[in-house]
Specification:
The structure holds three protein chains of three kinds. Chain A has a single domain, classed as Helix Hairpins. Chain A contains three helices and no strands. Chain A has helices spanning 2-20, 24-45, 68-99. Chain A is elongated. Chain B is mainly α. Chain B has one domain (2-152). Chain B has helices at 2-6, 12-34, 43-61, 63-69, 72-91, 99-108, 110-114, 119-152. The longest helix of chain B has 34 residues, at 119-152. Chain C contains seven helices and no strands. The longest helix of chain C has 22 residues, at 48-69. The chains are: A mainly alpha, B mainly alpha, C mainly alpha.
Chain lengths: 112, 153, 173
């Protein structure tokens, strides 16, 4: 249970960073930390104490395995996190090119 | 040797090591993609490692040398062929609903050729070539932008 | 499971440094430390596929972030009506933590996973798909539509980046 709570603390740090900071790069960093915490919680739920990794071997009999389904889901999610980060960085660079700053309070020109 | 050091990119040491290790990194990516069913790894990891080897070249030699070796038309062709093969393999499931598709699947057995553990990770590797393409475009954008800023100053 | 707690504490410390550092480059490097800690803890949690994938993806995103943020100095000012935002954020985070603690009661304890779906995958996966790696069997055979959707999302991101990075816009006459 304490591992779950520490994972929640990690998520909350990312949430605070994404909501509070005024720098666009810091916001990207906060979103990345939230993604890490969510992936970690998924794998943590699927853990079994004493289990082996879900790969069969030729010469051994494996009795208990950890849950392979959250690992498959997180394997999809990690690549999506990468593409989301790429898109956010591209948007941030375009914002810097247009406004000359990363500060979101200075970027208030809604006319485009 | 001094002429090489004066060109773009990093120092001679980094360039020599890159020249020696590039083929091994590329081979390791393909190995991981092809052995995904019996050991940890898979097509996506292999694709990202292949992309990282090209990023490695770009960081060491500067962007002109990397763009000279890879043409964007070939990249786009690889990505599209991988995606179309993946879509074909997935959509082959719907062929059971039609008599002609059922006949083809029963007689010619295309799933034994295409939908096995060799072709599908290669399709994934080509798709994550899309990640490589994105990385290239993003980095080229950054480089052009920095040049423009320096010119204005 | 003392390793998991130690790795989590390391990740939390690195995340606090990443959030509170004044310099952008050092905060980006601290995010890299969080990712490496995540990769190590996937290895401890018996998920070697995810460990390899997280390590590789972390390297790539770190390169992208450093290329995007290096050599850009920016003024760090905290004036203006910024206290209101801080209070709102802290209240929101506290409410979020309370709701999450309520939902944590229904989760199984650490180490006792309820494997309702994946019992069948483990029992029949190797015979029906021929793959010894059960995670590869799930992503490529049982849930191949998920993988197709993932490829579609990567294409959407590529198209988005290309549209954003385009130099020539509308012609101004």
């Amino acid at each position: 249970m304490t591992a779950y709570i520490l994972c929640l603390v990690l998520f909350s740090i990312g949430l605070y960073c994404a909501l509070r900071k005024r720098n666009v790069v810091k916001i990207i960093i906060g979103i990345g930390i939230m993604e890490y915490a969510a992936n970690f919680l998924f794998v943590l739920i699927g853990y079994r104490s004493g289990g082996r990794s879900p790969i069969y071997a030729n010469d051994q009999v494996i009795k208990s395995m950890v849950d392979p389904l959250p690992q498959a889901v997180v394997a999809v999610a990690i690549v999506l996190n990468l593409s989301v980060t790429l898109l956010l960085v591209a948007i941030a660079i375009k914002l810097y090119e247009k406004y000359g700053t990363f500060d979101i309070t200075k970027i208030n020109d809604l006319k485009g | 040797m001094a002429d090489i050091a004066r060109e773009h990119g990093m120092t001679v040491i980094v360039k020599t090591v890159t020249r020696l290790t590039l083929a091994f990194i590329l081979l390791y990516g393909i190995y991981i993609a092809l052995n995904g069913h019996i050991s940890p790894g898979g097509g996506f990891v292999g694709g990202v490692i292949v992309a990282l080897s090209f990023v490695h070249v770009m960081l060491a030699f500067g962007k002109e040398a990397a763009l000279k070796r890879l043409h964007s038309k070939g990249l786009r062709l690889a990505v599209n062929i991988g995606a179309l093969m993946f879509l074909y393999i997935v959509m082959m499931r719907f062929a059971w609903k039609f008599p002609a598709g059922r006949f083809i699947i029963e007689k010619m057995r295309p799933h034994e050729i295409f939908a096995n553990e060799i072709i599908l990770p290669l399709c994934e590797l080509a798709i994550v070539g899309a990640g490589l393409f994105t990385v290239f475009i993003a980095l080229v954008l950054l480089c052009k932008y920095e040049e423009k800023i320096e010119k204005e100053k | 499971m003392i390793e998991i707690h130690l790795l989590l504490l390391f990740m939390i410390a690195a995340a606090v440094i990443a959030v509170e550092a004044k310099d952008l480059l050092s905060s980006v490097i601290a995010v890299g430390a969080v990712g490496i800690g995540l990769s190590l803890s996937f290895l401890v949690l018996k998920a070697p596929d995810l460990a390899i994938m997280q390590l590789v993806v972390e390297i790539l995103s770190l390169i992208i972030l450093i290329r995007g943020t290096i050599r850009r100095d920016l003024p760090f000012s905290a004036s203006g009506r910024w206290y209101f935002n801080t209070i709102t954020t802290v209240c929101f985070v506290i409410v979020f933590i309370g709701l999450a603690l309520l939902t944590f009661r229904s989760l199984p304890d650490l180490g006792n996973a309820t494997m309702r779906v994946s019992k069948a995958y483990i029992a029949e996966g190797m015979l029906r798909t021929g793959a010894k790696n059960i995670v590869a069997a799930i992503t490529l055979n049982y849930r191949a539509y998920d993988t197709l959707g993932e490829a579609t999302m990567i294409f959407a991101a590529v198209i988005g980046v290309l549209v954003i990075a385009r130099k020539t816009g509308k012609k101004e006459k």
